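Quick one: C-alpha cells for this chain, please?
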Amino acid sequence: MSVVYRFRRALVLLASLTLLAGCGRDGPDDGIDPRDAAQVAIGRTVYAQHCASCHGAELQGQADWRSRLPSGRLPAPPHDETGHTWHHSNADLIAMTRDGLVPPLAPEGYESDMPAYADILSDTEIRAVLAFIQSTWPPEVWEIRRKMLEQARR
C-alpha cells in the first residue's frame, strides 16, 4: 500500500468519524459504534477470520455480485460503499448475520450462501464486525444512509 493511498484512507476515515459523531448509530442501544477503536479492531479480526473469504479482504465482495451464479444464488456483495450493506438498518444487519437471509429479511424460500452465524459468533462479535465495516464508509454514504433511515422511520 502506497503512502498516498494510506494518507487518503486516513483522511476519509477522519472525515467519516467526524460525520459519525451525529449519525453513526441507528438506535441508542444497538451496540455498534464505528468510532470505537477497540470494537473496530475486534471486528477487523473477526471479519478476517469469518467474512473475508466471501466478502473480500478489502470488503470488495465477489465479482459480478449482482448477477446470479449457476446455482441461482447471488455472489457475496461488497460491504464497502459500492455495495448495499449501508442501505440496511443496524437491526436488520445484526439479524441477517445472526440468522441468515430468512423472512422477513428475505422472501420465503430465498436461497443464499450466507450462513447464519448465531452458533458461530457472539452478538458482541457480530456488532464488532458491523462496527468495522461501518468504520470504512465515507461521509457521503453516512449522510445518504442517515436520510434513508430517517425516512424509513416515518
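Residues 3-153 form a domain with the Cytochrome Bc1 Complex; Chain D, domain 2 fold (CATH 1.10.760.10).
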